[in-house]
Amino acid sequence: MLPLQFKNGEEHFFLGEKFVLEVVENAKKSCVKIENGILFLHVRGNSTKKKRAEILQKFYRDELKKNVAQMIKKWEVVMNVLVADFGIKKMKTRWGTCNIRARRIWINLELAKSPISCLEDIVIHEMVHLLERNHTKRFFELMDKFSASWRQTKAKLREFPLR
User: Fold this and answer.
1) Whole-angstrom Cα distance, residue 120 to residue 7?
2) DSSP assignment of 22-75
3) Contact 122, 95 (CB under 8 A)
4) CB atoms < 10 A from the CB of 29, how many?
5) pLDDT per residue over 1-48, tens digit each?
6) d(CA 52, CA 44)
7) CB 111 within 8 A of CB 62
8) Judging by DSSP bridges, how do beta strands 96-99 and 104-108 pair with one another?
9) pLDDT per residue over 53-73, tens digit each?
């Protein structure tokens, strides 16, 4: 997989959909907008590749925070479990982690590129750890109870490799 350059015509993913990047220079405010299959990256003039990447990552982070907060709220009721806190961070080897003592889950920033169903299954997975610490038989029974699609999600996430 070639490194991203953040230039016009490049393909980027968001929530499992492929978008063509359109860089809009000389914007008053840096932001990301999506319309008709195009991901518009509004930047100030002469922005660097690093700055463009930061702007897109901020967009991904903000969107993930909204989605994860809604999912946690929904699944806390269903699972009868409480998440004290959550965060989004870039991880090289995991889609999510759970600190059981702090009741905090971390979600990989790269999940912003995968389908929303994958994100939800990862949130469920990390929340199940609050009910069952390890990947035991009970853990997988709980996963089956709360998400019939988690095995398909595991396979689907191979299409969205960690960078």
Assistant:
1) 30
2) EEE-S-SS-EEEEETTEEEEE--TT--HHHHHHHHHHHHHHHHHHHHHHHHHHH
3) yes
4) 7
5) 578 899 999 999 999 999 999 999 988 899 999 999 999 999 998 899
6) 10
7) no
8) antiparallel
9) 999 999 999 999 999 999 999
Judge whether 22 and 8 are in contact, CB under 8 Å.
Answer: yes
Contact 119/111 with Cβ under 8 angstroms?
yes
Q: Say whether pTM exceeds 0.90.
A: yes
CB 15 within 8 A of CB 114: yes
pLDDT digits (tens, 9 = 90+) for 94-129: 999 999 999 999 999 999 999 999 999 999 999 999
Query: What CATH number labels 54-159?
Result: 3.30.2010.10
Q: In which region does residue 23 sit, left (phi positive, over 0), alpha (psi from -120 to 50) or beta (all else)?
A: beta
**Residue 156's pLDDT band (cuts 50, 70, 90):** confident
Those residues whose C-beta lies under 8 Å from the C-beta of residue 75, and which sit 6 or more positions away, are 81, 123, 124, 127, 146
pLDDT tens-digit readout, 70-92: 999 999 999 999 999 999 999 99
DSSP state of 134: S
What amino acid is encoded at 111 in this protein?
L
| Distance separating alpha carbons of residues 20 and 11, to the nearest angstrom | 5
